[in-house]
Amino acid sequence: MFEIEFRAKFNLGKYRVVKKYLDHHAKKLGEDDKDCYYYIFSDKLLKLVNNVSKKTAKFSLKLNRLGNGASFPEIEFYFPQNQFETARRLVDNLNLPVKIMHGLQKRLNYSYRGCEVALKHSSDWGYHLEIEKMIKSKNDQKKSEERIRQVAAELNVKLMSEEELKKFIRKVESKL
Fold this sequence. Notes:
The protein has a single domain (2-174), classed as Hypothetical Protein Pfu-838710-001, CATH 2.40.320. An 8-stranded antiparallel barrel has the order 1-6-5-4-3-7-8-9. It has helices spanning 12-25, 84-92, 141-155, 162-174; strands spanning 2-10, 27-31, 34-40, 45-51, 56-62, 71-79, 99-112, 115-122, 126-135. The two termini are 31 Å apart. The radius of gyration is 16 Å and the shape is globular. With 176 residues, it is of the alpha+beta class.
């Protein structure tokens, strides 16, 4: 499976406008608040996620860095939420040569026009959204990216370019 995802950043006012629109026009998938640890490698990202809203936990390995393309393979492994702290201690004790970022993420999920839309807030990102589609083959990438851009246009949000995303991510990482 491949994940295609794009992001947009905005202020609280825009967040409220987008939320109101999605509440009226999209299928609500509910709260999806997460406590995330990001293990940032030079060529990939490992996330350890405690999904406090859904009472689940997972490892998610993105085989690409944010800002290095919108499409990448992703491997996920779910495990019982009550094992989250053990999993975190395990990874932390590996002494991996990575930067580690930790943060709480408030998130509302929607399904809209064949895409998953996550309306989010976190201390590092502020107010933002992520629009994504999962695809089985890279052959579907162009069509999926077009659909995501259509959804962004309907929501009247400007998607971040790869360069904007890369610059923002490097700025956040430089504070670690």
